[in-house]
Specification:
The protein has 166 residues and is of the alpha+beta class. The chain has a single domain, classed as Roll (Chitinase A, domain 3), CATH 3.10.50. Helices cover 28% and strands 30% of the residues. The protein has three helices and seven strands. Strands 1, 2, 3, 4, 5, 6 and 7 form a seven-stranded antiparallel sheet that branches. The chain is globular.
């Protein structure tokens, strides 16, 4: 009888453990609402008028301001190489976590964070843009210890596009 109770107890514990899931999609969706509120409050407090990036007619929650549009009419694709200068700041603390100096790195657009993929094409060569990225379009619920970024970090990027190569 004790064996049967022990087996039932272990079986029940196993089922209880299975019901707890780590639904990353649900976490990201919940965080998107929180991020949007934080970003819009920040923009309002700083008196910044920003536009929102939409993707296929759907608002992404990525806000941006264009300081300089740049020149040219380059078509951006996921294989477009961009040479940029940038400064990345954690919105909630104002701490700069990454920036370029005299050296301006080149990236293939399809390999960078999604916020850059959607935001950088808003300007042309010589253009400068400020992106306000919800965590979903940066690193999501995953902390980035090498950058000293917590999970769900909301980021600001000031980006200058030096060159565009297709």
């Amino acid at each position: 009888m004790n064996r049967i109770l022990l087996i039932l107890l272990l079986f029940s514990a196993g089922l209880a453990g299975c019901s707890k899931t780590n639904n990353v999609k649900a976490q990201i969706a919940t965080q998107a609402t929180i991020d949007d509120k934080i970003i819009t409050n920040y923009l309002k407090a700083k008196n910044i008028t920003a536009s929102v990036v939409d993707s296929a007619g759907v608002s992404t929650g990525i806000y941006y301001t264009i300081d300089t549009l740049g020149t040219g009419s380059n078509l951006y694709t996921s294989s477009t190489q961009v040479t940029v200068g940038y400064k990345g700041t954690l919105l909630t603390t104002g701490v700069v976590f990454s920036q370029t100096g005299k050296y301006h790195p080149s990236f293939v657009l399809g390999t960078v964070i999604r916020g850059w993929q959607l935001g950088i094409p808003k300007v042309q060569q010589g253009g400068t843009i400020t992106l306000y990225l919800p965590s979903k379009y940066a690193y999501g619920p995953f902390p980035q210890p090498s950058l000293n970024l917590p999970a769900n970090a909301i980021l600001i990027f000031n980006i200058k596009v030096y060159n565009i190569t297709n």
